[in-house]
Amino acid sequence: MIRRFKEFTKYISLAYKYLIKIKSDGIKEFGLKGSHVMCLFYIGESENGLTATNLCQLCCEDKAAVSKTLSALCEKGYVVLENGENKKYRSSYFLTDAGKEIMNQLNEKIRAAVIGGGTGLSDEEREVFYRCLFKIVDNLEAVSKSFSVSGDEE
Questions:
Q1: Model-level pTM?
Q2: Is the pLDDT of residue 152 over 70?
Q3: Residue pair 31/67 in contact by the 8 Å Cβ criterion
Q4: Cα–Cα distances in Å, from 129 out to 12, 15, 45, 103, 132?
Q5: Which domains does the chain have, with CATH numbers?
Q6: Cβ-Cβ contacts under 8 Å for 154 (sequence gap 6 or more)
Q7: Is residue 43 exposed (0-12), middle (13-18) or buried (19+ Cβ within 10 Å)?
Q8: Phi, psi (5° rounding) for residue 79?
């Protein structure tokens, strides 16, 4: 049991470390940080734009982190608020033409990372892996809730 815990935490941590490195290295040329990738990605995937609240949920980030990221992306001219509104938290964000160009380039890098990361796995193995990963995450969420002290949850 302890060996399984050590291996699981080690390999999940390593996978996360490599994902952060891939994101950071893949976006440096645009003068952005790895933390900006997921906001750009999700906004680019949405035809109707996304609010900061949507992005918090999708990116699993808090309001402050998403707000900081959106400010940087707006400042660089990669995203814009709908109709130029000032109500930042309730308005939807969209990619600008410059943001769409970056996303086209990032999507190529994302494809390469996904293909490279899955090298050697059959479609069936990949399906089983994701099904197991999702189940483990759901189970860990339930366990974390049972461990949390009242009022300790976000």
A1: 0.81
A2: no
A3: no
A4: 13, 14, 24, 28, 5
A5: 26-142 (1.10.10.10)
A6: 62
A7: buried
A8: -135, 160
Axis crossing angle, helix 97-117 with helix 2-27, rounded to the nearest 10: 140
Instruction: Tokens 């050697």: give the residue.
Output: 120
14-34 burial, b if ≥16 CB within 10 A, otherwise e? eeeeeeeebbeebbeebebeb
In this structure, what token pair is assigned to residue 72?
């940087």
What CA–CA distance (Å, rounded) separates 39 from 60? Answer: 11
Share of the chain above pLDDT 70, in %: 93
**pLDDT for residue 87:** 63
Using an 8 Å Cβ cutoff, are 89 and 53 in contact?
yes
Q: How many whole angstroms separate alpha carbon 52 and alpha carbon 89?
A: 5
Q: Say which amino acid occupies 8.
A: F
User: How do residues 15-31 score in pLDDT, each as one tens digit?
Assistant: 999 999 998 888 888 88
77-127 tens-digit pLDDT? 999 998 765 666 578 999 999 999 999 999 999 999 999 999 999 999 999
Tokens of residue 46, six digits: 């949405």
